Amino acid sequence: MEGSIIDVKGKKLYTEYNNLYKNKPTLIFLHDSLGSVQLWRDFPSKLGAETGCNILVYDRLGYGKSFPMPTHERDNNYMETEADILNDLLDALNIEEAILFGHSDGGTIALITAAKYPKKVKAVICEAGHIFVEQITVNGVAEALRAYRTTNLSERLQKYHGCKVETMVKAWTEIWLSNRFRNWNIEYLLKNIYAPLLFIQGENDEYGTLEQVEKTLSGVSGPAEKFIIPNVGHTPHKEVPEIVLKKSVEFIVSISR
């Protein structure tokens, strides 16, 4: 897919958009806290090919090939803000029927978007998303920050994010490690989700417990199912891509009947 920069109300976002199929939904991929378009690898194209859906992958502001964040400082509702930006991006591209596939922060953003903009979201695949703050998540972020400071993680991230790495890491770690974020919670939004939901999580996820899954499924108003994968951590689509691909295809086919 060819990439381009799209101006979304002053935010210049890098996108890769494959709009080949008329009258078909668009699969939209929402990356994690340190992710990017490139880091999805070939997973989006494979899922698009097997379901006959269009594909949109994009870097959020401050990530990948998108323009930098104006500041590393984030409000508690930063993921709610990202859902609003996604809605504006859908408007800019005239996408009216989206199937959201979000990982980690991206999974949370997918849930929020489905709650706030239900007319545009046909279904949600949430992989390792969060709806409230757990100590295991805080510990995981602290460990990632330690690795950033003591290993070559910074150099590896520069391959995908260039000079934006320092700001990106500070933006993620400072908000999640702050005392003011401990009470962040989006459970109140879940009742507004009517789109079919598939929640994928690794049983050994180092950033969240299965309580995230159970509370999400019990809180939404639409049909929902879980897919818990044994012996897998926080990134199932990378650790066991064929398993995640197969289940995602089955889910998308089932809601398209």
From TrEMBL:
Q: Which UniProt keywords apply?
A: Hydrolase
Where is the secretion signal located?
none
Residues covered by the AB hydrolase-1 domain: 25-134
Q: Give a single Pfam family match.
A: Abhydrolase_1
Entry keyword annotation includes Hydrolase: yes
- Extract one GO molecular function annotation from the record: hydrolase activity
Stored PANTHER family: ALPHA_BETA-HYDROLASES SUPERFAMILY PROTEIN, HYDROLASE
Name recorded for this polypeptide: Alpha/beta hydrolase
Organism encoding this protein: Chryseobacterium salviniae
